[in-house]
Structure formats: C-alpha cells, structure tokens
Amino acid sequence: MRQVARGSRFQPLFAPAMVLIVIAALIAWVSPRSLHPLNLLQTLKSSSIYGIIALGQTCVVLTGGVDLSTGPVAILTLLLTSDLSRGHNGPLIWIIPLLLMLGAGFGLLNGILITLGNVEPMVATLVTASIVQGFYLIWTKGAPKGVIPPSLRLLGTGRIGGVFPAAIAFWLVLSLIFLCILRKTRFGRCIYYVGSNPQSASLSGINQNVVVLIVYMISGICSVVAGFVLGGFIGIGTLQLDPMDYSFTPLIITLLGGTDFVGAIGGIEGTMLGTVVMGFLLNLLTLFRVATWAKYVLEGVLIVGILLLFRIQRR
Amino acid sequence: MIRHFFVNRFVISLVAVLLGMGILTGALSPAFRKPENLGNLMSQAVPLCFAALGQTFALLVGGVDLSVGGLMSTITAIGAHLINASSGTKEVLQWLICSIILSILFGAVNGTLIAHLGLQPLITTLCTGIVGQGIALALVRRPSGYIPRSVVKFLAYEKGLLRLPVIYLLISFILVLFYLGYTRPGRHIYAVGGNKRAAMVAGIPVSSVVMKAYILASLFSGIGGVFLTCRLGCGDPTVGNPFTLDSVIAVLLGGMSFAGGEGTPVGSMLGGLLLVVIGNALNMVGISPFYQYIVKGVIFLTAVAIHGRQRRHS
Questions:
Q1: Where are chain A's structural domains?
Q2: Is B15 inside a domain boundary?
Q3: pLDDT tens, residue by residue, B35-48
Q4: Which residues in B lie closer than 8 A to residue A255 (C-beta atoms)?
Q5: ipTM field
C-alpha cells in the first residue's frame, strides 16, 4: 500500500522535472557560465514572489477553483505599505497585521461569493480583482507616495550570510510549511477530498463550504505576503506593474508544477518545482538575448508546449 | 427562438438598468444628453461590443477567450505598419485581409489546442494572448503611426449621428442572431455548450463545433480591433489589454455562464453597451475614472449574485 501511495505521490513531478532538466541543459548550452550557483540563485529570487502567490493558488486549484484576484491584492499591499509607512519601520507593527487581515478579508469575499452566492470561482475572483484595483487607484489617486521601510527591503534584497537571498529562504520556509499542512494535517487532506469529489466529501462529514472559504483566505494572505516581498524588491509604491501578471504567472506556475484544474491532482512539491521551472524559463529567454517581443512569443509558445506534453503524458 | 433571445430576464433587466442610468445621468449632466455625446457613446461601444459578440461564442461552448486583447493590439499594430497618411484603399484592404486571416489563425490555434488536444481554455487563450502581445510589440514599440480617418473612410465614416461602424456592428449582430437562432451549426453550438456528452451521443461533431466557436470568437474580436484602430488613428501595442476582461464581464452581465450553453448575443451586446455607458456616465457626472472599477465590480456582483440565486432555484 505504502509503495503505491508513494508512486502516485511523486509521479506528477516526473514531467515538470524532465522539463526543468531540458531547460537547464539549454541554459548550459547557450551560456555554460550562467549555471553558476550565484546566477541560479538570482534566477530563483526573481520568481520567488510568484512562487509565494502560487502556494495559495495551488490550494485553490486543488479544490477545483481558481483565484484571479491575487495580483491586484499583491499590488494593493505594495501600495498601501509604502503609503502608510512612508519608509519608517515603526508603523509596520500595525500595517502588516492590517494588510494580512485585508488579504484574508478579500479571500473571504471570494469564498462567500463562491460558496453562498453560488458564483463560479473565476467570475467571483474577477469581481474582487476589479474592486481591489479600484480601491488602490482611489486610495493613491493615481500618484503613489512613500517608500518601503528598510526592514522589508531586507526581506526583498537581503542575503543570508552575504550569499543566500532572503527572499528565496522565505519562499522555501513558506513552501515547507504549506507542504506539511497539505500532506500531514487533517485540513490538508480535506482540501484534496473536496477537490476530488465534493459530494462524497460532504457525505463523509467534511464541511465543504468552510474548506473552500479557508482556502481562498489562504490565497489572499499569500498574495499579501508576496506583496511585502515585492515591496522589498522594488522599494517604492508604483502603479507601473501589471496586476494581472501577478495573477496569471502564479497560475501558470501551479499548472507547470503538474497541478490540474480538475482538482485534487498535484500539490505543493509540484508548485515548488514549477517556480524553479518558471525562473529558469525566464532566465533562458533572457540568455537568448532576444528582444522583448520575442520573449512574449516564446513564453506563450513554450508554456503551451509544456502543458501539451503533460497532457500527452497523462493520457 | 429570436423571441427567446430578446425576451428574457437578463435582457429586460439590462435594458431597465441602461434606461435608468441614461435618465439619471441625463438629468445630472446636460453634456450627457447632447447628440455629440450620444454619437461618441455609440462609436465607443463598437469595439467592445464586437469583442463581446466574439466572447459569446467562446462562453457558449463552455470556454473563454483571453486572447482578445493580444489580438486586438496586434491588429492595431499591423494597421500602423501598413497604413500611413498617403496610403489609399489598397493598403486598407490589405490590412483588412491581414487582420481577418490573423484572427482566423488565432481562433484556429485556440480551437485546435482546446478542442483537439484537450488543453484548458483559460490557460491556452492566455498564452496565445501573450503571443499576440509579443507580435504587437514586435511591430510597434510604443503608440505610433498615423491612420487618418480619411483613409479608412469606408470603415469609419461619421457624420452627425450617422456612424458607419455602428451600422457594421448592427449587421454583424443580426447575422449572429440568425446564425445562432436559426441555422444548424448555430444550434449545435448551444447543444455542445449545454451538454457535451449528450451532443456527442446525438452525433454532433463536438470538436469541430468547438473549433468553429473559437474561430468565430477571434474573428469578431479581430473586427473589433479593426474598428478600435480606426477610432484610435494609430498603432498601440497595449491598447487591446482592457478588452480581454471587459469582454468577459460584458457577456457575463448579459447572462452567460462559464458552464456554457447559456445566454444570448442580445445580452452580450447590452452588457458591452452597459460597460461603456457606465464609463461615459461617470466621466460626464465628474466622478474620477478610478471609481469605475468599483462601480463595475458592484454592478457585476449584483448581476452574478441574482444570476447565481436564480440558477440554483431553477
């Protein structure tokens, strides 16, 4: 029994791992020097923000839903943190809990719309995305103010021991926590049950609505946390970033990690791998020294290609 | 069938909301009632209504088309490349043919990946949209080029309240109504969206119907891109972006659902019109455009909440 369980657990990781090896080989072929560990860490650092959002997104996708409001919530965090703190560490004591609660609140809104309002997840989260965007545009009046406090800057740009980027360490710790929650706790198993068969889950006494509500709240909180790291990276509040990029890229990472829209297939270990794949993919495109436009084209084509491979492998 | 398209609760409530909004804004702002603004409103609505008409097909077969924005941007970029102040009808026709071929190509790629290779519509069309964005950026880096109204006369002629794009939109709308309501392939689209298995068992070629729906979806959003370019007068690599989600919101307001097989083209057109009227009305009353997001969200929320409640009852 144990053997079978293990096999099924690691099988979904097979295809993403192969893709990673191929991309790494391509990088080695194009520019052997960039396989240097320091460069690889740099690569991972830039995708760790997406990776943090993808943790919450994975939980959502595992229940058979999708959360498109993650990007706007992350941007909201960036803007409010810089505006409210104005570069001082002190106010973070209340800003961080406040924003985490706000993120959970938007997640709760998503969850309520989906469970009680019977609204499709994509629709509900798009509504929330629109409202959050309106909220931060009205708040900043189109002209964001302030800078990110130094302690958060440390999270985004600091290096542990002068080498290992703090952002990656943070992402790794969060991933491991999520891994434990999903694999080892009752709640984690509930997510899978609800995703695989909502009816039998509720027949066996799982309160499906509560699980879905919590999952969307987790996704909201993850977006806020990613927003803090993003703030650490950028250092100022800005409206120049495309909010939907921070919704769609984590979703792509989740899918690249082998988690499937049908629910209950895949998991955090896949998403961790997916984050690395995404980082390498973007790095590879940079290494090819192609123009911006070709990067977009290649990104689209490569992602469709990879997902197609997964599809064929699963058949 | 056509009667059912026009008389259903979504269409009635959308017309009521549009009328209410029109009367309220007209009372608050004299500028809103001026014929110039009404004409402006009509021209503004054309690209979004075309995109919504396209999105209707994607949602009818239970999918979604997120490549709308990338495709529309690409078409404006191609226009800026092919047409300049000294070009004549020949260049415009070249551009039109290019745009239509490109749209069909986008639809065919989406359709093949989704219908024949079994990929998820959401992520597939997102990726083709990214590719479209790339092509647009390859052609123009920033808003540039000059496409004068006089060159694209036969597409965008305007005089007083006569707006040629609106007439093209109405013709297309009537064709879509007829197609979806009365022809065999049109009814197949509803059948496939309603229940894929049942459609398959009934002998409907499901994959090719889905494929056709995505081609039509891209075709109409491509035509929307053409009229957007005429209105814009230049090429802009990011101008299409808002149309992706706006077209989805428009058709959802019009009574469609992601489950497929539900909703009508009438609702989609009215949904598109409502979004444009909201934007215009807020501007005319002098409310910051930033509030549009919230207003759209709240209206949308009300609509889907009522929709969800009613569907559960039925």
A1: 37-314
A2: no
A3: 888 888 888 899 99
A4: 120, 123
A5: 0.79
Q: Domain span at residue B125?
A: 2-6+47-277+292-304
> Going along A178-245, which residue ranges are E strands?
none
8-state DSSP, B151: T
- Among B74, B122, B253, B314, the strongest candidate for a mutation testing the A interface, having the largest count of A CBs within 10 A, is B122
**Cβ contacts of B119 on chain A, cutoff 8 Å:** 304, 307-308, 311
Identify the CA nearest to B172 among candidates B44, B8, B47, B1.
Answer: B47
Buried-state track B130-154, b at ≥16 Cβ within 10 A, e below 16: bbbbbbbbbbbeeeebebeeebbee
* pLDDT tens profile B113-168: 999 888 888 889 988 998 999 899 888 888 877 877 777 777 777 777 778 889 99
Check: CB of residue A52 under 8 Å from CB of residue A103: no
Outline where B183-254 has alpha helix (H).
184-194, 196-201, 206-232, 241-253
Q: Which two tokens stand for residue B220?
A: 């109409």
CA distance A257 to chain B (A): 14
Cα-Cα end-to-end distance for chain B:
20
pLDDT tens-digit readout, B183-239: 999 899 999 988 888 988 888 899 999 999 999 999 999 999 999 998 888 888 888
Check if CATH label 1.10.287 holds for domain A37-314. Answer: no
Q: What does the alpha-carbon distance between residue B203 and residue B198 come to, in Å, rounded to a whole number?
A: 9
A71: closest CA of chain B, how far (Å): 14
Tell me the two tokens of residue A213.
Answer: 């509500």
Domain count across chain B = 1
CB count, 10 Å around CB of B55?
Answer: 34
B37-76 confidence digits (pLDDT tens): 888 888 889 999 999 999 999 999 989 999 999 999 999 9
What is the torsional sign of CA B257, B258, B263, B267? positive
pLDDT band for position B307 (50/70/90)?
low
pLDDT tens-digit series, residues A144-186: 888 888 888 888 888 887 778 888 988 999 999 999 998 888 8
Please indicate, yes or no, if residue B206 is contained in any of the structural domains. yes
Binary contact (A123, B298; C-beta < 8 A) = no
Is residue B200 included in any domain, yes or no?
A: yes
